[in-house]
Amino acid sequence: MIVSFVQTKGGTGKSTLALNTAFSRRIQKQFQSIALVELDPQGSLKNWWIQREEEGRNTEKVSFHHISSTQKAVFQSGITAIAEHNELIIMDIPGESTGKLHTRFACASSDLVIIPMRTSTNDELAFADNLYPIIREITNIAPEKRKTFHVLPSFTHPQSNNKKIFEYFSDILPSHLECMGVVYPHRSVYENFNRDGMNLMEYAFSVEQNKRNAVQASRAVMDIEEISKNIIDLLERNNGSPKKKKKTR
Ligand SMILES: Nc1ncnc2c1ncn2[C@@H]1O[C@H](COP(=O)(O)OP(=O)(O)O)[C@@H](O)[C@H]1O
Ligand SMILES: [Mg+2]
User: Fold this and answer.
1) Boundaries of every domain in the chain
2) Ligand 1 pocket check: which of 12, 16, 96, 152 to mutate, most ligand atoms within 8 Å of Cβ?
3) Among 45, 57, 85, 219, whose Cα sits 20 to 30 Å from the Cα of 202?
4) How far, in Å, are 9, 30, 119, 146, 195 from residue 12 at the CA level?
């Protein structure tokens, strides 16, 4: 199964979300092998992973793959090969710099496309101009793909009323495009956790003794767990994943 974080606009949290969901407890529990794939020639996750290796951190069930090619045939066959050995692929897709080739590929080939987006006119316009035309093109050919695309309200104020945020998105988004039932709040810990190749969970552990930082970090860990839970629920809903299906009452 393939989950992609896509947004033609840069700096919306794609890479941060990709790496932390890959290491989340829920994803770790659900899947036996997880490939974190960076399809970005710039390779910010690659540098982070190299630091992880230098620090000798536990990779858990995650393997990292960086595909720097901008040729579709190359990254397409790369993903096919990775899919043979991994139950879940989490793809980090670059912004506009690569002529949207990666975006198009991710939108067409993923089981779930998560679109982190702020409640701002800027993000709204960028989405309408750049990403939505690609989604529309794909869903016109394959209407069943509509359920694949989900907006994740991102950089929301930690104290904001989530219900209002969901209403905002249901107003501005085309009717068939769903908003996830969870938000990705703005928190300064997301700017600091990744030094020395740490993931959020490891960071939370490292600041356990500092009460203030520990509270912030554990809130962020909970955000990621909630987002991961939503991802799993959506995958099960869309694909009827037979794995570890819980009995419903
Ligand atoms: N929830 C968040 N709150 C505050 N800052 C964040 C959050 N998520 C990411 N950031 C910061 O914003 C910047 C862009 O994040 P990144 O994940 O690299 O976005 P993208 O991959 O979409 O370009 C980084 O400096 C990151 O540390
Ligand atoms: Mg990125």
Assistant:
1) 2-239
2) 16
3) 85
4) 7, 26, 11, 22, 19
- Residue 202 to residues 103, 205, 231, Cα–Cα distance (Å): 30, 5, 22
- Ion ligand 2: residues, CB < 5 A: 14-15
- pLDDT the model gives residue 241: 58
Ligand 1 pocket member 21 (CB < 6 A)? no
CA distance 249 to 246: 9
Q: Which ligand 1 atom sits nearest the alpha carbon of residue 7?
A: 22
Distance 154 CA to ligand 1 centre (A): 10
Q: What is the CATH number of domain 2-239?
A: 3.40.50.300
| pLDDT in the model for residue 96 | 73
Place of tokens 């393997």: 63
Q: Could you read off the pLDDT of 46-62 as tens digits, one per residue?
A: 999 999 999 999 999 99
Mutation test of ligand 1: which of 90, 191, 198, 227 has the most ligand atoms closer than 8 Å to its C-beta? 191
Residue 173 has pLDDT above 90, yes or no: yes
Q: How far apart are the CA of 233 and the centre of ligand 1, in A?
A: 24
